[in-house]
């Protein structure tokens, strides 16, 4: 991973907001010892990153994503779940029939499906 590790990001946040590991541990319903152990390594389970984000009302998942340094698109899809499923079905049918990309799977004839 490029950049800082998630535990370093969390520790910097704690320090800049005058929050102790003991206080964080209490908010997360765990022991100070357990929290200290989690923050002493370079990585952390995503479930813990999310839990800490929730109790501190800060999105550490976003901070982690910024540190990765990979360009990504987080724009939500405007398609409904039905449209997404239809697209997937079209993709599968096009692969099975070796149909050209402009082929409309809604008009597929059973004889065009290659059985395995």
Name the descriptors.
116 residues; mainly alpha; 434 Repressor (Amino-terminal Domain); 2 domains; 6 helices; 54% helix; elongated
What does this structure look like?
- It contains six helices and no strands.
- It is mostly helical and about 120 residues long.
- The protein folds into two domains: about 5-70, 434 Repressor (Amino-terminal Domain); about 80-110, no CATH class.
- Helix 2 (about 20-25) crosses helix 3.
Quick summary:
This protein has helices at 6-16, 21-27, 32-39, 46-56, 60-68, 81-97.
| SSE run | HHHHHH
Main β-sheet, in a few words? Answer: none
CATH class of the largest domain: Mainly Alpha
- Radius of gyration, taken over Cα atoms and rounded to an integer in Å: 23 Å
Low-confidence runs of at least 5 consecutive residues: none
The mean pLDDT is 80
Distance between the termini: 42 Å
SSE topology:
Elements: H1 6-16, H2 21-27, H3 32-39, H4 46-56, H5 60-68, H6 81-97
Helix pairs in contact: 2-3
């Amino acid at each position: 991973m490029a950049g800082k590790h998630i535990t370093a990001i969390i520790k910097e946040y704690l320090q800049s907001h005058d929050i102790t590991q003991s206080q964080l541990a209490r908010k997360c319903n765990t022991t100070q010892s357990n929290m200290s152990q989690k923050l002493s390594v370079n990585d952390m389970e995503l479930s813990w990153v999310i839990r800490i984000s929730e109790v501190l009302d800060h999105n550490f998942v976003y901070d982690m994503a910024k540190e990765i340094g990979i360009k990504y698109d987080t724009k939500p899809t405007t398609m409904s779940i039905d449209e997404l499923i239809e697209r997937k079905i079209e993709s599968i049918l096009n692969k099975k029939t070796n149909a050209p990309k402009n082929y409309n799977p809604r008009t597929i004839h059973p004889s065009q499906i290659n059985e395995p």
